[in-house]
Structure formats: structure tokens, C-alpha cells
Design brief:
The complex is a heterodimer of chains A (about 280) and B (about 300).
Chain A (H helix, E strand, L loop, with lengths): L10 H18 L1 H9 L4 H5 L12 H10 L3 H32 L5 H13 L3 H13 L6 H25 L3 H9 L4 H12 L1 H16 L3 H6 L8 H11 L4 H21 L1 H8 L6
Helix pairs in contact in A: 4-14, 5-8, 5-11, 5-13, 6-8, 8-11, 9-10, 11-14, 11-15, 13-14
Chain B lengths: L1 H17 L1 H31 L2 E2 L7 E2 L3 H9 L1 H17 L2 H12 L6 H13 L2 H12 L5 H8 L15 H26 L3 H9 L4 H12 L1 H17 L2 H6 L11 H10 L6 H33 L1
Helix pairs in contact in B: 4-9, 4-12, 5-9, 6-9, 7-9, 9-12, 12-15, 14-15
The chains are: A mainly alpha (about 280), B mainly alpha (about 300).
């Protein structure tokens, strides 16, 4: 193990490590601690210049109450859910199919198609922006949740296919051959042999795509406007202009917006990390 | 009709059965390829096409040849600033890799509660960049921002605050971006460190290697896959920077924090009118900048593919 395990070092270093660890963590998370603190402060603290000190009173309920009952935030949150969930399902389904085709079969153009998916996934968003916005307007989906979902599914399929294909390629091929000898139809091999083995990959991608899409800002601004379709990332900027300089409310709103992916990460940590490393680092 | 289709259906079936292994991959690929082509591949071509035109997004396109590019490269100061800022992002963003490595080495221990520490260190990456930008802009505020207060303690002052000063604004935003990016690199290295061969480390230790020498000659070579992915995601992250700029400065002060991705958006959809053709030309330049790296990534992956089989 590297660096030298702490149990094998001097007593002083062991103790200092235990002390340094929480201090470094607090410094690292200072921005988050600040927002959390802001979000429970009363308005008067900011007027009095008490920005970075402790809250003078505990205003958790009134601040978060305002976010949930006196703004468009609930609507934005709901939009985010309706954008994120279908995208996750769609992208994972499409890429499972593409990954199966590219990982199991040898045919001409296999690698070419695979590389097309990878390359497309790395492309800057801006080169897609004008045509995709145009397309979305012309099929009548501008400023709708569906318009965003369709694009997200298509784009995320690139990244997911990279992951799925590599995962399937690493599965034991004799399993598939055995099924073929038994005369099992190819689509049944996909459904009953390969898909059950792909559960870890499906879970990893699902959490990862959830976070990516929930946090997307660019496409939300390009393809939607206003509270009837905008997700929470775009909504928060509108919320902030509504409550300009009301830092306690802006903070509470930000925390509400940031919470779902954080919760997702904590619940599915193992899968999340497997996804982030693209399956390449084991 | 019914009479006519029955026999063909049965021959079709036979034909399908005979060619099942050749056809199945294409059946599975139809839908993904269709989606990807419509929303990604074809739009790239369309952007190239649009970049040769003058277009407000609504009316007729007028063909102008290379005029957009000529204007970009000869007399557009904003483009120059954006391009230069992109290079700053590229170079400075790479700091996330050594910083992530450093934190991962710090955390690669087995003390009580270390798992929770690791996940808390990873936190910034999970949070939307919109929120990250917002918080950092409060830190940078003139007069009361925490960063300003700390600078004050050392007797330093930045005129207009970090984000209000054209000389520091871009660096301030990059610092905000480095926070989640470092967390990402850290997690890559932590998983990489897990799979470092303990026997090799012990052997090297017996040979007297330690500290920095051990890291450089024994550990880092084994972390190569993690470094490669860290490099890929950091480069892409740097060239995609948009959210932070949009939230923190909106391109200002005096346009000093624009990067190509932001400038493109501004030209195409700003309140000053839609200049889609010009925007598309900027996007094409950004695309070529990225293509340079994409080709390198694909080439490395291709080498892996060949090596693996």
C-alpha cells in the first residue's frame, strides 16, 4: 500500500493525521458549509454585515418554506424530475442495445461505429447548439420537457455505449456461445443471458446520467425558457433574480437544487464511482 | 393479400434464421444510431454549413463563403480574448490532476471513518456548477466576501473584487472550476491506488525506495489508466466551461472572461440579435480545437483495442 499505512508510522504522525484530517475536510468543504449556514440565517444578518459568522437566529423553516411555497422552485424541481428520469431510462436502454451489438458481434464497421459514439460524446456542445435548437423548434418541442429529453437521450447514448460495450466485452463469451448451441434466439440471449449480467453497469450508468442531466445548465438555457419546462439549474438563476441580494433564500434554493444528486451519490456510491472511472480503472 | 404474404413470411423467417448473427447487431443498432445521427452527427455537419452563411435564425440564409472566418481571425478582438482565455483554462485546469493525486495520497489510509471522508471530499463534483459558481462569487465579493476579507488580513486588495477586475476574473472562475474537477481526479486516483500491486510496493520498499522516488517510479506507472482518464475528462471539462462563466460573470467585466463556448452562445442567442452564422463559425473553431484531443484519445483507445486482441 502506498503511502505507508498509518499504523506503521510513528505515534506522533498517527495523531497529527487524525487531527489534520477533519481540518482539511472543513477547509475543502468551506463553500458548502457557507451556503448551508447562509440558508438558515435571518435576513437581518446580511443587513448587519454578519456574513460569515454564526446565524443570529435559526430560520431554517421560514427560509426553506419560502423556497417551497412562495416561488416557482417546486415547479422547476418537478420539471427536473420529468427530464431526468426518462432520459436515464432512454439512454440506458439504447446504450445497452448498442453495447450488446458492438460488444458481442464481429462485423465490418463495428469499431468505426463504436468510435463514432465515443467521438460524438467528446464534441463541444456549441457545435450542436444551433442545429439542435432549430430541429427542436421545427418539431414543435421548443420549451418542452420532451424536447430536452430527446436530445439528452441521444447525446448520453454516446457515453453510455462506450461504457456498456466495454463492460459486455469483458463478460465471459462462452456463456453466449453455450446459449447459441442450445439454439436460443439472439434477442433472447440479450434479454436472458447478457442483460442480467449487466446489472452493475446499468446501475452505474443510471446514477451517473442522473447526476449529469440533473446538473445540466447549457441545454436547459438553449432549449427551454420559463417555468413550464425549465429544470432547476436554470430555474435557480431566475429564482435568484427574483430574490436579488436575499442570500439566505438564494442559498436555501441552491441547496434544494443540489440535494437530489447528492442523495443519489450517497445511496449508490459504489456504482457511481464505477461509472466515473468509465469502468477502466478497477 | 393474406395469400401472398404467408409464403413470403415463411421464407423470410428461414432467411432471417440463416442470417441471424449477421442481422441482429444491426437490429440492435438501428435506434441508437438513428438518435445519435439526428442529434449529434448530422448537426455537426449542419453547423459547418451554417458557418458559411449569414443567418438570423429565422429568415433566409445568405451565403457568404469564408467571410465569417475572415472576420473572426482578422478583426474580432472578442474572439482573440476568448481564444486566449480558452488556452488559460486548458493549462490551468490540468492542475486538477496533480491536486487530485495529492489529495488521494493523503486519503489513501485505513483509519476509522475514512470512507465517509472520501465521499465528503468527492462532494463538490456532484453539485451543479451553477451552485458552485454562485457560492464562489459570494466568496469573491468586494468588501464582505470571505476571500476578500482574508486578502485584507494580508494587506492585499484587488480593485473591484476578484470577479470585478478584468485581470483576475478569469483566474477566479478557473479556481472555482478546479474545485469539483480536483474532486473528480481524486476519486479516479483513489480507485487506481486500490489496485496498485502491494507486492511491487513491498519489493521496492525492500530495495530502499520511498517517498517521492517510490511515487514516481513505482506508483505512477501503475496509475497510468487513471491518469489517462483524468486527462481526458479534464481537457473536455476545460473546453466545455460555460456554466461557471455564465453564472459568475456573464462574460464580463468588459468581456474579459469570455471563452469560445460562451462567446458562441452570446453571438447566436444574445439579446443583441441572433447571429447564428457567425456563432456557428466560432463553434467550428472550438470543434477543431477539441478535435485535436479527440483524435489523440481515439488513437490511444485504438492502440488499446489492438493490444487487447
Amino acid at each position: 500500500m502506498f503511502p505507508t499505512p498509518i499504523e506503521k508510522t510513528s505515534r506522533t504522525w498517527q495523531i497529527s493525521y487524525q487531527i489534520i484530517l477533519p481540518i482539511v475536510l472543513i477547509i475543502w468543504l468551506l463553500p458548502l458549509i457557507a451556503v448551508a449556514m447562509f440558508s438558515i440565517k435571518p435576513d437581518s444578518d446580511f443587513a448587519n454585515g454578519n456574513y460569515w459568522g454564526l446565524p443570529s437566529s435559526f430560520e431554517f423553516f421560514s427560509n426553506y418554506g419560502k423556497v417551497f411555497f412562495e416561488s416557482n422552485m417546486p415547479k422547476y424541481l418537478l420539471n427536473s424530475v420529468f427530464i431526468t428520469i426518462p432520459t436515464v431510462i432512454g439512454a440506458v436502454a439504447l446504450s445497452a442495445m448498442a453495447g450488446f451489438a458492438l460488444g458481442v458481434y464481429k462485423f465490418k464497421g463495428n469499431l468505426l461505429i463504436f468510435f463514432m459514439f465515443i467521438a460524438g460524446n467528446f464534441v463541444p456542445f456549441q457545435i450542436l447548439m444551433v442545429p439542435v435548437r432549430d430541429l427542436t423548434i421545427s418539431i414543435g418541442l421548443y420549451d418542452t420537457v420532451q424536447g430536452l429529453v430527446l436530445f439528452h437521450i441521444a447525446f448520453q447514448t454516446g457515453f453510455c455505449t462506450l461504457f456498456m460495450r466495454n463492460f459486455i466485452k469483458a463478460l465471459p463469451f462462452p456463456l453466449i456461445e453455450a446459449a447459441r448451441v442450445e439454439g436460443v434466439a439472439e434477442w433472447r440471449i440479450f434479454l436472458y443471458v447478457v442483460l442480467p449480467l449487466m446489472k452493475p453497469a446499468l446501475a452505474a450508468l443510471a446514477v451517473l446520467i442522473f447526476t449529469f442531466i440533473w446538473n445540466d445548465y447549457f441545454w436547459a438555457v438553449v432549449l427551454t425558457q420559463g417555468p413550464n419546462a425549465q429544470p432547476v439549474t436554470a430555474g435557480i438563476t431566475e429564482f435568484n433574480s427574483q430574490y436579488r441580494a436575499a442570500y439566505h433564500l438564494m442559498s436555501a434554493g441552491s441547496i434544494v437544487a443540489a440535494l437530489p444528486p447528492v442523495a443519489m451519490f450517497f445511496l449508490m456510491q459504489k456504482h457511481f464511482i464505477a461509472g466515473l472511472t468509465l469502468g477502466a480503472v478497477k | 393479400m393474406a395469400f401472398a404474404t404467408t409464403p413470403t413470411a415463411s421464407t423470410n423467417r428461414g432467411w432471417y434464421k440463416r442470417n441471424e448473427i449477421a442481422i441482429t447487431p444491426w437490429l440492435f443498432l438501428i435506434l441508437p444510431i438513428l438518435f445519435f445521427a439526428v442529434y449529434v452527427i448530422i448537426p455537426i455537419g449542419q453547423s459547418f454549413w451554417i458557418s458559411f452563411h449569414e443567418w438570423d435564425g429565422l429568415g433566409e440564409k445568405t451565403y457568404v463563403g469564408l467571410a465569417n472566418y475572415e472576420r473572426l481571425l482578422t478583426d474580432d478582438r472578442k474572439f482573440g480574448i476568448s481564444f486566449w482565455n480558452n488556452l488559460k483554462w486548458l493549462v490551468l485546469y490540468l492542475l486538477a490532476i496533480p491536486m487530485g493525486l495529492f489529495i488521494s495520497l493523503f486519503l489513501n489510509q485505513t483509519v476509522a471513518g475514512i470512507r465517509l471522508y472520501k465521499s465528503l471530499f468527492f462532494f463538490p463534483f456532484v453539485i451543479s456548477q451553477v451552485v458552485v459558481g454562485l457560492v464562489f462569487s459570494w466568496f469573491y465579493f468586494p468588501n464582505f466576501g470571505l476571500f476578500t476579507v482574508i486578502l485584507d488580513l494580508f494587506g492585499l486588495e484587488i480593485k473591484g473584487g476578484v470577479l470585478g477586475n478584468p485581470n483576475t476574473a478569469t483566474y477566479g472562475i478557473i479556481a472555482a472550476g478546479l474545485w469539483p474537477q480536483t474532486a473528480y481526479c481524486m476519486i479516479l486516483y483513489l480507485t487506481g491506488l486500490n489496485s496498485v500491486d502491494p507486492e511491487q510496493v513491498e519489493a521496492a520498499r525492500l530495495d530502499g525506495a520511498k517517498g517521492y522516488k517510490m511515487l514516481w517510479y513505482v506508483i505512477l506507472p501503475q496509475l497510468k489508466p487513471a491518469t489517462f482518464i483524468a486527462f481526458v475528462v479534464t481537457i473536455i471539462g476545460a473546453l466545455r466551461s460555460f456554466d461557471l462563466i455564465s453564472v459568475m460573470t456573464n462574460g464580463g467585466p468588459f468581456g474579459s472572461t469570455r471563452v469560445l463556448s460562451f462567446y458562441m452562445f452570446e453571438e447566436s442567442l444574445s439579446e443583441f440579435g441572433f447571429r447564428m452564422g457567425y456563432g456557428a463559425a466560432i463553434a467550428v473553431v472550438l470543434f477543431f480545437l477539441m478535435l485535436f484531443f479527440i483524435v489523440y484519445f481515439l488513437w490511444s483507445m485504438y492502440q488499446d483495442e489492438k493490444g487487447g486482441h
